[in-house]
Amino acid sequence: MALPGGRHLDSITLPGQRLHLMQVDSVQRWMEDLKLMTECECMCVLQAKPISLEDDAQSDLILAGGPGPGDPLQLLLKRGWVISTELRRIGQKLAQDRWARVHSMSVRLTCHARSMVSEYSAVSRSSSQEMGQIEKLLMEKCSELSSVTERCLQVENEHVLKSMKACVSETLSMLGQHFGQLLELALTREVQVSAGWASGKGSCLAGSLKSALVRKIDASDNIYTTESTTGNLFSLTQEGAPLCRIIAKEGGVVALFKVCRQDSFRCLYPQALRTLASICCVEEGVHQLEKVDGVLCLANILTDDSHSEATRAEAAAVVAQVTSPHLPVTQHLSSFLESMEEIVTALVKLCQEASSGEVFLLASAALANITFFDTMACEMLLQLNAIRVLLEACSDKQRVDTPYTRDQIVTILANMSVLEQCASDIIQENGVQLIMGMLSEKPRSGTPAEVAACERVQQKAAVTLARLSRDPDVAREAVRLSCMSRLIELCRSPSERNSSDAVLVACLAALRRLAGVCPEGLQDSDFQQLVQPRLVDSFLLCSNMEESFV
Fold first, then answer.
1. Cys-Cys with 182: which of 79, 134, 177, 287 at CB 3.0–4.6 Å?
2. Do residues 99 and 124 lie in contact, with contact meaning Cβ atoms separated by under 8 Å?
3. What Cα–Cα distance (Å) separates residue 228 from each residue in 16, 72, 235, 237, 433?
4. DSSP 8-state class, residue 212
5. Which parts of the sequence belong to the Protein inscuteable homologue C-terminal domain (predicted)?
6. What is the pLDDT of residue 11?
7. 3-state secondary structure of 240
8. What pLDDT score does 192 carry?
9. What are the CA-CA distances from residue 130 to residues 142, 181, 204, 462 (Å)?
10. Domain definitions of the chain by residue range
C-alpha cells in the first residue's frame, strides 16, 4: 500500500551522505532502543493490549535510537523513520488480512506518534497553530485506527471484514497524509532555525526560507557570514533526502547559485557546489537547477581555467548528480543539451589534468552519466580522443587506484563501443589488454560496496568486449590475450564472479561473440555447454554449478 507519509523518509544513497539511522554501533543502538522499547511495552500494558507472541512479532518491531537531548532535528528524523516504517508494515499486514498483527502494530504506532509529538513539543524552539491542528488530526486518526482494528478482531463475517478493510485502508492513508504534513512542517521549521534563516523567535513558518536566505546573501558582503550559512546548509543536506527536498523547495538551490555567480565569493564556490550536489540527489533539486539556468553556470565554471581544480571538480560532481540515470527527471534537462559540448570538453580536460584520484573520479563519473544521457556525447568523446585519455589514466595509480574509478572508465568504454569507429581506437591504445585486466577485478577490503563495484567492472568489461568483438581485429586480439579462457573461468567458477548473475550473462554473451569469430579457441565441452545451447540453458547450467575444489 502506498502511503503519502512514507515519501518523506525514503532516501537515495549517495557517496558522502551519512546514514545516521543505520550506520551506528550495534550495542550503542540497542542501548538507545531500550528507552523506546520499554516505553512502547508500558503503554501497551497500560491500555490492556497483549503483546503479540507471533513468530514475526520481533521482526516487525523496528525502532531507532533516541536522539540526543535538545536535538529536535534528530528527534524528528529518527522518530519519523520509525513511524514511516510502521505505516509501511501495517499496510503489508493489512494486505495479508492479518488482523491481530494490524491491531497490535496500530497500538504501537499510536505510542510512537504520541511520543514524537510530546518529545518534539518539549525540545522545539517554537510551535504554530497549523502544527497544533495537524498534531490533533494525527492523534485522532491514530485512535481511530486502533479502535477500528480492534473491532475487526471481533468480526468473523468475511463480507463485513472486507468492507471494514476498506475503512481501515482509508484511515491508514489519511493518517499517512497527516503524518507527512506534520513532519514536513516541523522539518522545515528546524531547517530554518538550524541554518540561521528564520526571521526571529516565534516566527514559525510565516516567513519564507527562500526569501530569508536570498535576502541574507543579498545584504551580506561578509564572506564569513555566507560561509557559515552555506556550511550549515551542507550539514543539513547530509541528513538525507527529506531535508534535501525541503531545502530545494524553499529556495536553497537559488541561493547557492547566487553565491556561485559572485566573484567576491570565489573561495566559497567549492563548498556551495558540494552542497548543490547533495541537494540535487532529489528531483526537486534538479527542477530548481533547471529554473535558474544552473547548467549554464556549471558550464562556465568548468570551462574557466582561472578557477581552481577543486572548484571545477565540485562542478563536475554536480553535473554527475544531475545527469544520473537513476533520476528520470534528468532526461528532460533541455538546457543541458545546449551546453553539452562545452561541458564534455572541459570534463575530458579535467580527467587528463587531474592531480588526484578524487578529482579524476568526479570528472569521469560525470562523463559516464552523460554517455547515458545522450548518444551524441559518445561521438563527442570519440572526437576528443577520450579513449586515449582514459586508457592512459589507467596506468597512473595516482589517478586510477580504486574499482570505483575503473567502474566509471569501463562504463564510458561500454557506451562508446556501440560506435564502429571505437574499435580501431581501442586496439591502437592497447585497450583490449586493459579490458582483459578488468575481467579480473578483485576487491581489496571486501566491503559490500567495493565487492559490488568489482562486479560492475567485470560485467561492463564483458559487455564492452562483446560489443567490440563485432570487429574481427578486436576479436582476434582478445583471443590472443586469452580472454576466452578468462570468460570460461568466470562462467564456470561462481567465486570468480562473486556468484553474480549479471556478470555470468555478460560473460556468456562475450564468449559466444568471440566463439563466432574464433571457434578453435574453445574445447568441445566448453562449446557444447556454454556456446551451443540457448543462452538461458547455459545460464541455468552455470548458475547451478557447484564449484570443484579438487
1. 134
2. no
3. 20, 21, 11, 14, 50
4. H
5. 79-550
6. 35
7. coil
8. 65
9. 19, 10, 10, 57
10. 72-193, 212-324+335-458
Residue type, 541: L
Report CA 54 to chain centroid distance, whole Å: 34
The DSSP H or E segment spanning 536 is helix 535-543
Asked whether 172 and 103 are in contact (CB, 8 A), the reply is: no
Taking 50 as the pLDDT cut, the residues of the chain under it are 1-23, 39-69, 197-208, 210-211, 547-550
CA dist., res. 91 & res. 382, Å (int) = 51
Nearest to 82 by CA among 150, 148, 140, 29: 29
Architecture of domain 72-193: Up-down Bundle (1.20)
Burial of 293: CB neighbours in 10 Å, binned 0-12, 13-18, 19+: middle
Please state which CATH number belongs to domain 212-324+335-458: 1.25.10.10
Q: What is the reported pLDDT for 159?
A: 83
Please give the pLDDT value at position 20. Answer: 41
- 101 DSSP 8-state letter: H
How do residues 308-348 score in pLDDT, each as one tens digit? 999 999 999 999 999 988 887 666 677 888 899 999 999 99
Q: What CA–CA distance (Å, rounded) separates 319 from 301?
A: 11
Tell me if 243 sits within 8 A of 237, measured CB to CB.
yes
Quick count: other Cβ atoms within 10 Å of Cβ 261?
Answer: 14
Rg (alpha carbons) of the chain, rounded to whole number = 28
CA dihedral 156, 159, 161, 167 (to 10 degrees): -160
Please give the pLDDT value at position 49: 41
- Measure the CA–CA gap between 141 and 48, rounded to whole angstroms: 20
Task: Provide the grid cell at 250.
Answer: 524553499
